[in-house]
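Structure (tokenized):
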């Protein structure tokens, strides 16, 4: 395991905004966890309700398999399609399903449509909305608000822990160098940049998707750190079986490794799993561009500022 943890130089104060972003992400994630638990319990009660054998067959036919999860998967799909109304999804399911035994194709489609419409009415009255609705960003929506909220929401504990560790490692120094106002502006602008470029890429590919997580902004902080302090180092900790230690690595090298690796993955692999590699790449590029466009004066003085931090720390130790 290899983790960038902190700047390899003294910071003059505690990075308040960096910590605040981490607290927001943690609070949002805990609320997500609570909401997903309630959602899962409600879905379990809904799908566990008594149904006729024919209704069970309908769910199995639509899913093209037999299983206890068919009800949940089908109802979730109907209720949460980002581009189509429930009626359109139901119509597609009813017409594409293999007709029920003893029914004509038309009668089977009519029965399934009416059954699913009844199920949707019950579902909407018993099961809460998707907990990530209003948080996650759908690239086909072009919604500037969820471009931002999606940066503060996460999928699981591993997702949020690694994002926040990496974020703190780079963002703490960036906050010291550029101040509260520019720091806040960058988090917002990079979130919008990631969302817009993701939407453009998805539109060009003809395949939109949902996304959430701070990782794009984390890569943006890497890119911005590399721009502001190309010689600045990050203290990294490594652990391999029984070998443990730390090493200071230049920020530009870490940014090149992580962002460059994602660029290679983006260009050479079609299936990226659940990782939004596009957000990583565009976040990193956005960070460097933000510095290039708006923070040239700060960059010119960044090394002097770093040396001032270190001198102040030395003088404090000598008192």
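Design, position by position:
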């Amino acid at each position: 395991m290899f983790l960038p943890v902190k700047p390899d130089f003294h910071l003059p104060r505690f990075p308040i905004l960096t910590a605040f972003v981490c607290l927001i992400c943690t609070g949002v994630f805990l609320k997500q966890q609570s909401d997903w638990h309630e959602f899962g319990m409600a879905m379990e009660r809904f799908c566990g309700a008594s149904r006729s054998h024919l209704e069970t067959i309908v769910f199995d036919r639509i899913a093209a398999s037999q299983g206890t999860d068919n009800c949940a998967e089908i109802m979730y799909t109907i209720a949460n399609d980002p581009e189509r109304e429930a009626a359109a999804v139901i119509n597609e399911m009813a017409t594409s399903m293999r007709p029920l035994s003893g029914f004509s194709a038309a009668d089977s489609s009519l029965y399934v449509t009416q059954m699913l419409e009844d199920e949707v009415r019950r579902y909407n009255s018993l099961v809460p909305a998707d907990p990530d609705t209003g948080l996650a960003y759908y690239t086909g929506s072009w919604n500037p608000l969820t471009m931002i909220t999606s940066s503060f929401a996460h999928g699981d504990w591993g997702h949020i822990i690694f994002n926040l560790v990496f974020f703190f490692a780079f963002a703490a120094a960036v906050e010291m160098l550029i101040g509260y106002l520019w720091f806040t502006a960058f988090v917002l602008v990079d979130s919008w940049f990631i969302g817009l470029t993701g939407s453009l890429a998805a539109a060009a590919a003809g395949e939109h998707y949902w996304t959430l997580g701070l990782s794009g902004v984390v890569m943006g902080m890497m890119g911005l750190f590399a721009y502001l302090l190309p010689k600045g180092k990050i203290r990294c900790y490594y652990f391999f079986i029984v070998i443990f230690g730390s090493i200071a690595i230049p920020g530009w090298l870490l940014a090149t490794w992580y962002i460059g690796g994602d660029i290679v993955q983006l260009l050479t692999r079609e299936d990226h799993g659940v990782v939004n590699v596009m957000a990583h790449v565009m976040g990193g590029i956005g960070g460097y561009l933000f510095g290039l466009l708006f923070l040239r004066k700060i960059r010119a003085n960044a090394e002097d500022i770093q040396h001032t931090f270190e001198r102040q720390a030395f003088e404090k130790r000598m008192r």
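Reviewer-requested clarification: The chain has a mean pLDDT of 93. The beta strands are 2-7, 137-138, 210-211, 233-240, 243-250.
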